[in-house]
């Protein structure tokens, strides 16, 4: 049976990790610009350390990224050479509305993305556009408190109306918020939320979550009104939790973790808050303020498909003390002794992707789209500049086989697959360049030094072959 004939193969990037040009053509400052490399990064991304301006003590990799702002034609041509059917990218909100609360957008920013989309269409590449990949204009953070404030709905709705109308006919696949559940784990990076001493952080996070969920429903409503061909998806940082042991308490701990992880998607795909979440709020004294019509909006405008990132599975136990921890996509979990790890300690579990696909599809019965999957690794060019990244080919081929099994043997409805960081870019978790994911090497180091020259890795031709055979030939030659 295999993948559908119109399966959307491609790759994914985020504006704040690749674009650069942070102060060009009228763009405003965003929360994601202020994420420095180094030991302060985690405290800042979690909203525990207030860091609202550049200083001389830190290095800010997002300022330049890989300078895709000036290289996008070259980069898209390379994507086309691999045979991409789709390219997932995101909009920098502050490029379109520099402060976020203006009534009129920045034409230079709108034109930049219009040119990117036209460049994609020139090669027959379908853009898959994330409206907000963690970006929040800093003016909205400083003046309104970002998503803790309901006024954000007005500004986000304005952004959506502008982009849906401007790019009608150029873009039909949209994602409302990237890894929306990351708001609970990295509030400043994910949503511009910074905490003051003594604040009830859980209350603030779930109030912000409600505002983003209503905003997502509004976006879905507007997208369908502007163009009935538009398809709108949600986006989850996924990876199923396994129980550490068969102890029923561990099984329950894993169940609870999965339930919390699906909280946002339950609302976006099913249209209502899960009963367990409402009970949990009551027990914790969390009072989420809702306006009349909010719940009806959530119920009426659910997403058309569900997209997610998958890098590894996770492990939960009722008593975690003393258990060794494994790193992950911001999430740390108990280490699984049956799995190998990447150089950054992320556990490698291809079968976990099949499990996650089945779990999400069984839960929601909506089409799925894997929009991030990949291996962060140190790539060392040979003396003649070649990069033999067989480790990446091995990782990706195993994961593609797992998703193929989910489609062929389990009946999962899968729309497409975009590998993360199809071209090397700045790591979201660490701010490093040496943690590379791409098929395309970018000559840039952790200190921002390098020529920015693009070159193909061994995996470039391998992925080209995978796409050309619609996933049938995963062999490495």
In brief:
This protein has 477 residues and is an alpha/beta fold. It has helices spanning 15-18, 41-45, 68-82, 93-96, 107-122, 138-144, 152-166, 187-191, 201-226, 248-261, 263-270, 275-284, 294-300, 350-364, 390-408, 458-468; strands spanning 8-12, 86-90, 126-132, 173-177, 231-238, 241-243, 305-310, 314-316, 325-326, 333-334, 340-341, 347-348, 368-372, 414-420, 440-442, 454-456.
Q: Can you give keywords for this protein?
A:
alpha/beta, 16 helices, globular, TIM Barrel
Strand line-up of the largest beta sheet: 1-2-3-4-5-7-13-14
Which percent range describes the beta-strand content? 5-15%
Describe the main β-sheet briefly: 8 strands, parallel, barrel
Counting H and I runs of at least 4 residues, what is the number of helices? 16
- What is the first-to-last residue Cα distance? 25 Å
Helices, strands, pairings?
Layout: E1 8-12, H1 15-18, H2 41-45, H3 68-82, E2 86-90, H4 93-96, H5 107-122, E3 126-132, H6 138-144, H7 152-166, E4 173-177, H8 187-191, H9 201-226, E5 231-238, E6 241-243, H10 248-261, H11 263-270, H12 275-284, H13 294-300, E7 305-310, E8 314-316, E9 325-326, E10 333-334, E11 340-341, E12 347-348, H14 350-364, E13 368-372, H15 390-408, E14 414-420, E15 440-442, E16 454-456, H16 458-468
Parallel strand pairs: 1-2, 1-14, 2-3, 3-4, 4-5, 5-7, 6-8, 7-13, 13-14
Antiparallel strand pairs: 9-10, 11-12, 15-16
Helix pairs in contact: 3-5, 7-9, 9-13, 14-15
Organism: Vagococcus humatus
Keywords: Glycosidase, Hydrolase
Family: Belongs to the glycosyl hydrolase 1 family.
């Amino acid at each position: 049976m295999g993948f559908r004939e119109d399966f959307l193969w491609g790759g994914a990037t985020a504006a704040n990790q690749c674009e650069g040009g942070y102060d060009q053509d009228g763009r405003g400052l965003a929360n994601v610009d202020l994420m420095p490399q180094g030991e302060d990064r985690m405290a800042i991304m979690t909203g525990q350390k207030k860091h609202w301006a550049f200083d001389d003590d830190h290095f800010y990799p997002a300022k330049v990224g890989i300078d895709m702002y000036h290289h996008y034609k070259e980069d898209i041509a390379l994507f086309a050479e691999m045979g991409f059917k789709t390219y997932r990218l995101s909009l920098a909100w502050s490029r379109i509305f520099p402060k976020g609360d203006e009534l009129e957008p920045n034409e230079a920013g709108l034109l930049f993305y219009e040119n990117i989309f036209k460049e994609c269409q020139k090669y027959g590449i379908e853009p898959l556009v994330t409206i907000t990949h963690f970006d929040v204009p800093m003016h909205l953070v400083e003046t309104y408190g970002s998503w803790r404030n309901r006024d954000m709905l007005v500004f986000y709705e304005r952004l959506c109306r502008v982009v849906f109308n401007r790019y009608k006919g150029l873009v039909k696949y949209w994602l409302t918020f990237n890894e929306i559940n990351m708001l609970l784990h990295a509030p400043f990076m994910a949503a511009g939320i910074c905490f003051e001493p003594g604040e009830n952080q859980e209350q603030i996070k779930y109030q912000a979550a409600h505002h983003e969920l209503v905003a997502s429903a509004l976006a879905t409503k507007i997208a369908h009104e502007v163009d009935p061909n538009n398809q709108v998806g949600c986006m989850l940082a996924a990876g199923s939790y396994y129980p550490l042991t068969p102890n029923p308490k561990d099984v329950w701990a894993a169940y609870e973790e999965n339930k919390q992880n699906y909280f946002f998607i339950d609302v976006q795909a099913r249209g209502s808050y899960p009963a367990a979440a409402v009970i949990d709020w009551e027990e914790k004294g969390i009072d989420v303020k809702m306006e009349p019509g909010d719940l009806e909006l959530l119920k009426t405008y659910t997403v058309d498909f569900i997209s997610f990132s998958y890098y590894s599975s996770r492990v939960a136990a009722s008593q975690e003390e003393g258990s060794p921890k494994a790193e992950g996509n911001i999430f740390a979990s108990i280490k699984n002794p049956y799995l190998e790890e990447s150089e950054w300690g992320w556990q490698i579990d291809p079968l976990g992707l099949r499990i996650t696909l089945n779990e999400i599809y069984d839960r929601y019965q909506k089409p799925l789209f894997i929009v991030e999957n990949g291996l962060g690794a140190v790539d060392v060019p040979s003396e003649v500049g070649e990069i033999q990244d067989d480790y990446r080919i091995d990782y990706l081929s195993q994961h593609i086989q797992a998703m193929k099994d989910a489609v062929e043997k389990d009946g999962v409805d899968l729309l497409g697959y975009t590998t993360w960081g199809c071209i090397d870019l700045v790591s979201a978790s660490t701010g490093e360049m040496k943690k590379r994911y791409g098929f395309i090497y970018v000559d840039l180091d952790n200190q921002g030094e390098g020529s920015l020259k693009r070159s193909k890795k061994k995996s470039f031709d391998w992925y080209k072959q995978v796409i050309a055979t619609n996933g049938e030939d995963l062999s490495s030659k």
